[in-house]
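Bumping my old thread because nobody answered last time. Still need a sequence for this structure:
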């Protein structure tokens, strides 16, 4: 389990959000999913009748919905222009912050069943939810059904993102709900579903991966997690996630891309000890891109250093991850 302790905010009890019209945050209960409410953030552009793009943002392992937005904010300052909710407001996007499953003894430390299983020597890196086979696909299905009941939804503009375990959950949804999600972006979390249950999307899915090359918690090269010091907790690498092999194809192979990406350097605007190389795979049926933050850690670029640098590495400040993610999504036909 990636212990991403992102918030000490009080937890509000969810209500039935049917008929809501107010913009900003609403904490909504989810029928059939007790103790797994979600935050619905409506932008100023929401008028109750016009469908807007929807971004579902999955918190990291050990976190919860209340901290998902804060992790994206510069210095953890909620309301900063860098925050996911702030960027979404500027662009007229709806953001949904759902809740994973907490263990009985640690209910506030929630995880997602992003896959990984117990096969071929691989373990459930997402902890409780994976080890207990929590049906998070059913949870997401119920979440989407509830959204359809309370707001107008454009079914061609539903996207997923997340950090760490939440990024891995986004990958699993691209594998198993390709008919629902128009694209995904993962930060610091690879496609653990490649291991178990496997990845066989029903159509090509646009994928953006953002990952620090010095990530101590989900290593760029995969393998065990140095920040947790748990040998055998094997994580899928960025290369396996995006390219893979003929036996276990990554997104470039799944999307029919050429296997040699075009590389370019992004502007180095901050003296933060990081630079970024962008890789775009060619001739894809759906776009596959990587923003490799050279020297970056297990963090959201432009966001919050939620733990000391010695624990999670550097936060890149050359660009804002949420801006790059929405740029990527808005370019999808």
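Sorry it took so long. Here it is:
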């Amino acid at each position: 389990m990636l212990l991403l302790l992102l918030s000490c905010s009080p937890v509000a009890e969810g209500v039935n959000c049917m008929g809501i019209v107010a913009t900003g945050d609403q904490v909504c209960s989810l029928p059939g999913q007790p103790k797994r409410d979600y935050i619905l953030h409506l932008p100023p552009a929401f008028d109750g009748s016009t469908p807007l793009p929807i971004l579902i943002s999955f918190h990291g392992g050990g976190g919860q919905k209340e901290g998902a937005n804060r992790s994206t904010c510069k210095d953890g300052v909620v309301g900063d222009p860098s925050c996911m909710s702030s960027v979404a407001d500027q662009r007229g996007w709806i953001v949904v912050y759902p809740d994973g499953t907490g263990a009985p003894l640690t209910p506030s430390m929630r995880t997602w069943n992003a896959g990984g299983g117990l096969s071929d020597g691989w373990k459930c890196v997402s902890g409780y939810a994976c080890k207990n086979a929590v049906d998070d696909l059913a949870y997401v299905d119920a979440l989407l059904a509830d959204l359809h009941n309370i707001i107008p939804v454009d079914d061609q503009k539903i996207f997923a993102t997340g950090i760490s375990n939440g990024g891995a959950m986004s990958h699993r949804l691209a594998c198993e709900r390709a008919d629902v999600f128009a694209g995904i972006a993962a930060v610091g979390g690879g496609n653990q579903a490649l291991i178990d249950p496997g990845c066989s999307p029903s159509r090509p899915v646009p994928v953006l991966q953002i990952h620090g090359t010095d990530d101590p918690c989900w290593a760029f090269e995969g393998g065990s997690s140095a920040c947790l010091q748990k040998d055998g907790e094997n994580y899928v690498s960025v290369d396996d996630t995006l390219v893979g092999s003929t036996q276990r194809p990554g997104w470039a192979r799944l999307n029919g891309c050429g296997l040699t990406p075009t590389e370019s350097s992004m502007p180095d605007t901050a003296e933060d000890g990081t630079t970024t190389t962008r890789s775009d795979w060619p001739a894809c049926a759906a776009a596959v891109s990587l923003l490799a933050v050279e020297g970056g850690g297990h963090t959201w670029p432009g966001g919050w250093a939620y733990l000391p640098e010695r624990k999670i590495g550097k936060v890149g400040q050359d660009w804002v991850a949420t801006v790059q993610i929405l740029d990527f999504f808005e370019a999808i036909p």
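The first helix runs from residue 65 to 68. Let me know if any region looks off to you.
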